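Reviewer comment 2.1 asked that we show a complete input and output for one of the modelled complexes. We chose the zinc ion case, as it is the one discussed in the main text.
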Amino acid sequence: MHRLARDLAELVGSEVSATSPQGRFPAEEVDGQRLTGVDAYGKHLLAGFARGVSVHVHLGMRGKWLRFAPVTGPGLRQVRLRLAVPGVAWDLIAPSTCELLDAAGRAKVVGGLGPDPLRADGDPDEAYRRVGAPRGSIAAALLDQSRIAGVGNVFRAEVLHGMRMPPTRPAHSLTVEEFAELWARLQAMMRQAVDDGRIITVDAEDRLVVPEAESRRVYKQGLCYDCGTPIVTGTIDGRTTYACPQCQPKWTS
Ligand SMILES: [Zn+2]
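Response of the prediction step:
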């Protein structure tokens, strides 16, 4: 989302043509208005318009934005929202959320999220308080967007492997020092992903040619990239975890 916000910033400052070829978004409410900013908070995108309303987008599992420059035709029928300026169009397809919010609605979305490691206002001390709350595993805590925002299943698997920490480690057992390292690793990994436009955690001389299936150390891998041990999968809160039993030994208090 942070990468998208950065790319969509090319529309900021312009009066934007907004349409909904699919007809499922009230585009006329923002059509012709000046886009004042595009912000990412975790996995949420908020596009602010001059009259104080924001378009709130969450892509969910299948949503995506497609960029057209030059613009070759009108948006296809499945496009929920097209934002366009002369020569450039951005089409939003299959989001899980695309809604108009007033200032209060926007504040509610942002207020429901934990600190975001990619944002300058993301406060690691607050994140430690929320993630370290005495319930559940570190793996569950990392995917809970109200505790820390923006971490998905790939980042979770890769950062815990980097920390040599099993997914089942109780969240409240993390020390201040461990959490500081976790936060720093997440920041580095997520910033790199914004630059790459995808998540690559393996060493790569040329990041442009890393095959998707070989771009992670443990996530959806058969063998651990670091030590070659078979990866073990599990399920925590309905989401699959990936860990190396050699690199991430069971935690004993
Ligand atoms: Zn390993």
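The chain has six helices and ten strands. We note this here for comparison with the apo prediction described in Section 3.2.
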